[in-house]
Design a protein that fits this description.
It is built from two helices and eight strands. By secondary structure, the chain is α+β, with helices and mostly antiparallel strands. The structure holds nickel (II) ion.
């Protein structure tokens, strides 16, 4: 198990656009495993490669249903709306209200370089949007309604 250092908001690496991954090399596989370990250790539901200082289009997510690895992910379809609390491992202990789609369909490569489609609702839809935005240098704080706060006010309220 290898943990990587999670970059904190204010670090320039979190503002940069990430590059596509052309091939799943042993080094990329190692990065994927390290990112999963780092996400679980930090009790997060998602982690994007730039958060560990790597400018590649790679995301890991686990909303409690097992790990999902997204390589070069792209949002293909969204439906509906949900408004609720969001946080980020690059800004620990802070939360903000963000409106996201209720349903998101994503296209990405899996670890075997197969193009796959994944669908998510509620928390998974939120995680897809949040993590994919990291790959273009964006953080959820750009979209919050109201102020950042230190505790969760409501459980995924609609
Ligand atoms: Ni984040």
């Amino acid at each position: 198990m290898a943990l990587r250092n999670i970059r904190q908001m204010g670090d320039e690496v979190l503002k940069k656009k990430c590059r596509e991954i052309k091939e799943v090399t042993p080094r990329i596989r190692e990065l994927i495993e390290d990112m999963k370990d780092t996400m679980y250790e930090a009790n997060g539901v998602g982690l994007a490669a730039p958060q560990v200082g790597i400018l590649k289009r790679l995301v890991v997510i686990d909303v409690g249903e097992g790990p999902i690895v997204l390589i070069n992910p792209r949002v293909k379809e969204t439906r509906g709306e949900q408004t609720g609390e969001e946080g980020c491992l690059s800004l620990p202990g802070k939360f903000g209200i963000v409106t996201r789609p209720m349903y998101v369909k994503v296209e990405a490569w899996n670890e075997n370089m197969e193009l796959v489609e994944l669908e998510g609702e509620e928390l998974l839809a939120r995680a897809f949007c949040h993590e994919i935005e990291h790959l273009d240098g964006h953080m959820y704080v750009e979209k919050i309604e109201g102020e950042l706060h230190d505790v969760v006010y409501e459980e995924d309220g609609e």
